[in-house]
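Lesson 9: reading folded outputs for more than one chain in a single document. The general rule is that every protein is listed as its sequence immediately followed by its structure tokens, and records are never interleaved. Here is the first one.
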Amino acid sequence: VDFFIYAKEVNARVALKRTAETGKLHAVVLANDLSGARLFGSSAFRDALSLASQKTASVYPGIAGPTLLLNLPPLLGALVKVFTPLFPKVVQERLRFESGPLKGVDDLKALLRKPEPNPTRDAFLADVERLVAR
């Protein structure tokens, strides 16, 4: 839980710094790749992420952009389709369930700025930009 709270603080500081530098409001987009997620595995990770979100929601209200839940396994994807209409409208607007971005990326180091040009990074950023714009 502490790590996720720390990460939110770092993201908030970066977003606020970029907002001050550019005069445009910057938000944080969360992209969670759920490839290989198990429906019946340990819930420790999900519980920690949920608790951190609950603790920080009121502390960082202005920087929260959409949350992208990417590459859900088929069974989880089917459950999402069934239950998403039951979520409050405000939650539905913030969550995006998509396939594609990060699919086939085995190591996040592939998304680093270097080497230039970096087609993997460019494709990922284009996918995220397209999803956020919807």
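And here is the second record, again sequence then tokens.
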Amino acid sequence: YLSSLLECEKNRGMHDGDELHEKSGAMGLLWIRRSLAFQLDLYASFLSRTGGVHPRDAAYGAYEEHLSPYHGWALRKVFPASLAQMPERRVFIAKFGGIAVEELDEEYDRAVVKRLKALVDTWDPLIRCWEEKFEVLGLEDRRRV
């Protein structure tokens, strides 16, 4: 379905090469994909219980790779500032598990990480497929917003 939508918009001449029409399905999907790729990298950083990076640092890295190249000056200042408030991994895992951080133990941590790994393993090939389809169709809009 993704391919059909992108091909239909391209064939109708809705876009100017790789510059997507602002109110198109392709533009919406492009930003959804970039946002999911950011989240994917952030969530993948939670899979290691030891030796992993602080969620703030993982978020900065994911932001630099997936969103910053497409953000204008203002967003490149505001977005990272919001990431500075990221709590430690333990707080994230408890939130994902729907429990208080004081209730988090190793067993519950493993259970939450198992679900996060399933999510990461599901999203990764989908995101890669989306990236490939946008590239093949010449719809990877690299303009800054």
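What the second record shows: The CA atoms of residues 6 and 109 lie 40 Å apart.
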